[in-house]
Amino acid sequence: MWLFHLYSMIPSISLLRALNPMKEAILRLSSSSRINAYKISETIEGDITVVSMETVNSDTKIQKTDSQCSLCTCNIAVKVSYKDVLILEQFMREDGTVLPAQLTGLCRKQQLHVERCVMQAHWAGLFPDRTIPEFDRAGYKRFNRYWNDSMDMYRLQEKKLPGTYFYIKRYQTKNSRVLKK
Amino acid sequence: MSHSGVVSRMNRVRQWAQFARQWHLMDANQQDLFKLGEKVAIHLAGRHKPIHHPETDCGDHVVVVNCKEIAMHGFDWKHTLFHFDKGYPRSKADIPAWQLHEYDPCRVVFLSIYKALGNNLLRRRHIQRLHLFPDGEMPDFVEKNIGNVMSPVQLLVRRSDEYTAQERAAFPRLVQHRPDHVIDWERPFSNPGRHPRQGERPPPTKAEAAKALAGGKTAPKKK
Q1: In B146-193, alpha helices (H)
Q2: In which residue ranges is the amino acid composition biased (Low complexity) (chain B) (predicted)?
């Protein structure tokens, strides 16, 4: 009886041990200790301009742990890619540029990874409301594209495929008309 | 079809449908050109059917819509060249995929499917059952025939403006600010340009440049 109990306990204990770091990560994400942020405010009273730092309750609920960045400590299996628009836009300014590492609190590796992902997201057109107006979308950059991982833009190679003049044009397209007999 | 030996009515009808010409619908929106080509080619040749045999003409019709929204990997729109050759002198041409796509939004889809059908004598007959449309519009008779919607080969990616405010609010915050964080640091700023070298004058600001320009204009007047 006792043995039976012991054996039934063992898997649950090991499971708990495996879940512990994940639990900590979740706790870290959801712990409700609010941090104050500051905002510069200027008020003009006659000839005097008063510049003061106002305290603002920011919506960040997490505290920075020393020497570890928020993406590295995130023990949930998250490999940020260009598709994770809601994660990437937390590290961005209004105009779509990436905040520096001093402000994002990321380690060097993750900062570069996020920068590459943001650039890929811009190229894939995932931030239409957060780009500069002169972002280049001419030529081949107009069409849809996707990425497999964040280092894809450094692996360039030209492919040459056989094309054919044989083409069945059943229905009318933009530039061509179906020949009618 | 079933392990129990009793054929259900659903499976019986599905088997009958194998012998008929089915019409499949494929949405090319955000799908990879070549993965889509492989999948459509399998259905055009009837290779998805258990009754398939190369000499059995059991291929299906495939309707591909939204061809203009098809995607390629990375910079492949520029770096994929299609080689056209009529076999006459000066008739060779290498055309990048995006230029073909710009001229006719169905042409690269056709080429990828034609390539995926393999180099054999049957592919000309198989590809006659392909119907390509640049957008969602199609003739009525095509729409009436469609009996199956094929699953996409790639997951669709959502743009940032397609998320609702609720989803945004429910999403956890990952950024860890310093305790003395100032929100104004996050404001965008213009490109400050290159740092001036030692002994070099810094580049003129906009106001200075405008002043210099005005001065240049007024100089001839003084004469």
Answers
A1: 165-170
A2: 206-223
A68 is written with which tokens? 């570890």
List all residues of chain B from 122 to 151 with a beta carbon under 8 Å from chain A: 124, 127-128, 130-134, 138-139
Measure the CA–CA gap between B153 and B108, rounded to whole angstroms. Answer: 17
- Look up residue B166 and give its two tokens: 């609720």
ipTM exceeds 0.90? no
- Whether A130 shows a pLDDT value over 50: the answer reads yes
Give the CATH number for residue B124.
Answer: 3.90.1180.10
Residue with tokens 């920075």: A64
Report pLDDT for A11. 40
B123: left (phi over 0), alpha (psi -120 to 50) or beta: alpha
Range of the domain at A58: 28-63
At residue B89, φ and ψ (nearest 5 deg) are -60, 145
User: Is B139 within 8 Å of A39 when comparing Cβ atoms?
Assistant: no
Over residues B36-50, the mean pLDDT reads 96
Phi first, then psi: give them for residue B50, nearest 5 degrees.
-65, -20
Interface of B with A in 153-172 (CB under 8 A): 154, 157-161, 163, 167-168, 171-172
CATH number of residue A147's parent domain: 4.10.640.10
Residues A88 and A139 in one domain: yes
Q: Which range of residues forms the domain containing residue B140?
A: 25-150
Q: How far is B11 from chain A (nearest CA, A)?
A: 34
Q: Taking residues B15-30, what's their average pLDDT?
A: 95
C-alpha angle B97-B117-B35 in degrees, rounded to nearest 5: 55
Number of domains in chain B: 1
Q: Is B193 left (phi over 0), alpha (psi -120 to 50) or beta?
A: left
A-facing residues of B in 43-102 (CB < 8 A) are 69-84, 86, 94-98, 100-101
Report the residue of B109, B174, B178 to disrupt the A interface, i.e. the one with the largest count of A CBs within 10 Å.
B174
